[in-house]
Design brief:
Blueprint lengths: L1 E5 L11 H10 L4 E8 L3 E6 L2 E7 L3 H18 L4 E4 L4 H13 L2 E6 L7 H13 L2 E4 L2 H11 L6 E3 L6 H5 L7 H4 L4 E6 L8 H11 L4 E6 L5 H10 L6 E4 L7 H6 L2 E4 L8 H8 L4 E4 L14 E4 L4 H13 L1 H15 L5 H17 L4
Parallel strand pairs: 1-2, 1-5, 2-4, 5-6, 6-7, 7-8, 9-10, 9-12, 10-11, 12-13, 13-14
Antiparallel strand pairs: 3-4
């Protein structure tokens, strides 16, 4: 199979990057894999004999749109491809929809989350999803959302979760421990981009309302909402209870393994890789009903799944895990069964390849 796609991750241009290495392994299953990436400059990279990455740049999004269209048209004119795929369900999808219909090529759109699905973007996504021959999602909940809110036939959608490096988490050397810093405290941990959709404000308010001594919330992540969150913590006089970890953390496994409970209070998630990593590290989870909730974390089995943006329920569940050490231990023990749901890179590749074979040739591999 020959696949041509539009990626939104410029790091794949670097052959040594983790995303590029994953693409190299995945591309071994294909005859050719050609990826274009919208960036601010033109650049080409050959990751393997059959894997090519090309970035197209422009400071004007309007011109970049047509530049991408022109370049893909040139590539398709010179070589036959079996499938066009993109991570963007909005404007970039329009390019591939038009070219797929013009040249008789199958079209796939990948859906990783819904945090930008409103206004014009929602209209574009609705159109792209209906035009796609096949749709890839990252969780069962995301698939259900597409079926319920976009009226997409379930048979058109397949689930291929985000790859999580199981060995990296399970085999970490434990070079750092939160327990060394906060020896006698119960440590809640949250990890992720600091943006409004993550609703970290709810966690801050929960710590305030919980009002328990010897409880810490450690926030790991960067993002545009960080300054606002820090200001809120200062206004609420919670600087001793809520700690922001600055900068990029290379080994999150050390944090997962030395905390007591992970908090995820997002209003929306595609998958939530952080939860998968916590499960692998035997860290109990309290999370909103988003992403991999009810798949990797089941309510009152190996954690708590709570309603979105419900402060009272969040506080009650936080209080429960702080006070009930036996329950916390049971949650950790029960993680074992859910670890097997976290698939290897080869298993995830097989899911994608099988579905591509099905839509292109009418049968699986």
């Amino acid at each position: 199979m020959k696949i041509l796609g539009i990626s939104l991750d410029p790091s794949i241009l670097d052959k040594e990057s983790i995303p590029a290495q994953r693409i190299i392994k995945f591309g071994q299953n294909l005859d050719k894999y050609y990826l274009l990436v919208p960036t601010d400059k033109d650049q080409k990279s050959q990751l393997a004999a059959n894997i090519f990455v090309e970035s197209l740049g422009s400071h004007n999004k309007f011109f970049l749109f047509f530049k991408i269209y022109k370049r893909i048209s040139e590539i398709i004119k010179n070589e036959k491809f079996d499938l066009l795929t993109t991570q963007d369900a909005y404007f970039l999808s329009l390019i591939l929809i038009f070219l797929s219909r013009k040249h008789g090529i199958k079209f796939e759109v990948q859906i990783h989350g819904f945090e930008k699905y409103h206004g014009l973007r929602k209209l574009l996504a609705n159109y792209s999803l209906r035009q796609a021959d096949i749709i890839r999602t990252v969780s069962i909940k995301t698939k259900e959302y597409l079926v319920d809110n976009f009226s997409i036939p379930a048979k058109k959608i397949y689930v291929s979760p985000v790859f999580v490096d199981r060995q990296k988490i399970e085999n970490s050397k434990n070079e750092f421990s939160l327990r060394d810093l906060y020896q006698n405290d119960f440590i809640f941990l949250t990890v992720g981009r600091l943006v409004p959709v993550k609703n970290i404000v709810l966690q801050i308010r929960a710590i305030k309302k919980l009002n328990l001594d010897k409880v810490k919330l450690v926030i790991v992540g960067e993002g545009p909402d960080k300054a606002n969150l820090q200001a809120l913590v200062a206004r609420e006089n919670l600087n001793k209870s809520i700690i922001f970890v600055d900068g990029y953390i290379k080994n999150l496994a050390d944090y997962y393994k030395s905390a007591d409970c992970l908090l995820i209070t997002s209003n929306m998630e595609g998958y939530c890789m952080v939860v998968a990593e916590a499960v692998l590290a035997d860290l109990p989870v309290i999370m909103t009903d988003v992403g991999c909730a009810n798949d990797l974390v089941e309510n009152n089995i190996n954690g708590f799944v709570i309603p979105i943006n419900n402060l009272d329920v969040l506080v009650a569940k936080m209080k429960k895990v702080v006070e009930d050490q036996k329950l916390l231990t049971e949650f950790k023990t029960r993680h074992t069964a859910y670890k097997e749901k976290i698939l290897s890179q080869q298993a995830l590749s097989d899911i994608i390849i099988d579905n591509w074979q099905k839509v292109i040739y009418g049968h699986e591999k």
